[in-house]
Fold this protein.
Amino acid sequence: MTTNDSQVSMPPRPDGQTTSAARPLFDTIEALLGRSIFVDLSFPLAGMAGNPSLESMRMLRLPRPELETSFLLRFRQSGGHMPVQAIDLSSSGLIWPPLQISQDNRSAVVVSFEGAGAAIAASGRLHGSHSSFLFPVHPADTADPLAANSRFREYRHLRLTDCNAGPSFDLFVPQAAPQGPPKGGSSWDGNVKPEEVIFASEGANVVVDARSMIHDGGHLSEGDGTYSWLWTGPSTHFRLILPQLAGARSRLAEICVPRTEEDSNLDLLAVQFDGRPVEHHVDRWSAMSGKITVEIPHGSDYSVLTLIVPKLTHDANSGRLLGLCLDKLILTP
Amino acid sequence: VPAPFHELSWFTPLPPARNGIADYAGMLLHEAVKLTPCVCYCENPLAGAPEGVEVRDPSQAFRHLTDQSPILHQIGNNRDHVFTLDALRHFGGVTSLHDLSLLYLHELGSSRLADLCGRMQAPAPAMGAIYARHWKEAGIKTAANYVLFDMAAEVLSRSLSVIVHSQYARKKLIAVHGEAIASRIAVIPHFAKKLAVTTSRQARRELGIDPGVILILTSGFASKAKRFDWLIEALHHLRQRGRRFRWVHAGEERPAEYALTQAVHSSPGLSEHWELTGYLTDDRLDRYIAAADIVVNLRFPSVGESSGTLARAFSAGRCCIVSDTAAYAEIPRDVVVHVPVFDSVGALVRALDHLLCDKSLRDTFGGRARQYARRFLSLETIARSYVDVVAASYLDSKQRAALAAGRRKLRELETAAHPIRLDFDMDEELPDLSTSLGPGKSDFQFTLWFSSAEHFAALAVQKPALINSIVGPHVEIDNVIFVSGPGDSVRGHRRLGVRVAGRACG
């Protein structure tokens, strides 16, 4: 998609707003900027800016305490196919965009943050890199408007509003981005209202397919772009980092288990949230399958769900130790 | 009495881990939670924690603990305790130390041999360096290593207080690691668990043991130090004298360590009066203890360990025979029969002979053992002692603050440590870097300067392991590169440098 395409799809509205024909968030951004690469520096707190159909490249922002860093870097994203890389924006050797992302010259880089404060803090290092900044609009955000004013003066400011009443996002696009910002919009100024762009979140529930799960298990997701699954194992412990919509925890997590080779893995399953035991319910579909439902405890920190099975089954074909086969994680706000 | 803590965090394995310390911690936790709220960080979330104790994931403990969180670690010398040692390193706390030698634990938990080599040099640098070099360079690791290098220094330095089970253990730690640690070591004896079944008749009925036979019991993993060789020889003599008994070993055999079955079968006439149960659950072990007439619990050499079976045998009022050594020597003389560690077989024969023939003598020792257990070793008393020690350790706010500041400083130093940089001219004597690059996890870079490439080649032929020979075994080398030096005005050519980068571990 080219910039011209995005302009075609977004005729300016008489009231000054731009419509995106209610596309999902990332699609809306691509319509604005052209082909984009999304780098999520809010990991693990936000994990997902608001749209599961396009995946971000999650990177862990350093510095952090050593224990937390080593804990979080054990996780792998994209169903286990990609490591979570660390990045230190304060490092003198910073390379941006990171080498881990394959960026062609025509792609815009959109970096997402958990809030305005983090984005402002990072903008000092990423300024001049032609990257756009994306972060959720928190009503209680305490980001310093003066700092924002100075950092984002040369950026165009767009307010992405969910027509389904979900969280809104601020998008700051550099004036000299390779694809060029959309016409219209406004540079950051406390007195000037941002240009409104409407997007549509994909319903209240967030569905994470196995191929998109961020986990610390030993096995990779299998399947294709249409359907994917993932076996837990070889450890009895399987941890998942749950995406949070605009940094907010969901209320309910449902994990679909289409198969296990050992029925006691559903009967005697233990579930932890953030390392503490939580109640769970198993809705059995059959002796060897079902859905695990967990009420997510309140909290402002990132969410780690752990499934612990009592037994692992040796798979003669692959030689792997298998626990539960998962295909979907459904999060309900 | 108000609970002393908002929450006392334990790091320990729990049952069903096949680990005596897990059983110990489970029982102690059951009692401690009556005194103060407790949570337990345990690798097995399906572990059998007592009611009211939440089992948490140790890998996410950092999300729940602060510098002020009171913590109790149960540390023993096996794989189940690797995570507790890690937790102590990160969070500090009070440690209940069940083994005085932790080399095996460090071996299991260390990814680098150089780390172990470094730690072996504290507190006996010269001897440690020699043994470490033998291990690293020749793969020589003897049983002596596990006695000589206890690896307790780190636990002692990182713990607010250390709880041990005997005065012997305390004295030994002070003797090896210095008087400065004395005020931080508390002695709390091993508790004597109350057995559900204490009558021999009931226990034997449940186990299917002849009520008329005199039962001698040994227990636990069959190790060399439990001196089955002495017992087998003594029992062989007694059989020859016509004494009647049945010997049950209530525990598992580790043939690689000590081939118990083979040893029994090689003693004529003994095997038909002997039984090996294999691993037993806690309840079943209790029944064997209750069914026993004589409990034999020998150790030599002892590394200061305490025996849970022995404490339970006291609780059940059973007559016990122990070695007169280490922590066992502290048990009052009228509570157990002590057997010397020299001429042990002869002494064992005499002791067992009298006890087999004299039920009243067995009952006398058993009665005193029961009294001793009730008075000093009750679970309630021991749990209270634990909570008191932890509370006292954390109430000493100055010490706590100083340690927290020390830990912060250490972290800062570790983060900001600049590598040591040294240069040596190889025209002179070979440098000895074992001291200047002593154990301590610091990065280094040194350069050996040779007058020419020929000079380097000559020395390399003369001393093939040149670099290894000048650094200690705790040193891990990351890379070696050649560098060119400034011109030598006398010889008219450039000097050759060998730059070595790595770290001094331990």
Summary: The mean pLDDT of chain B is 89.
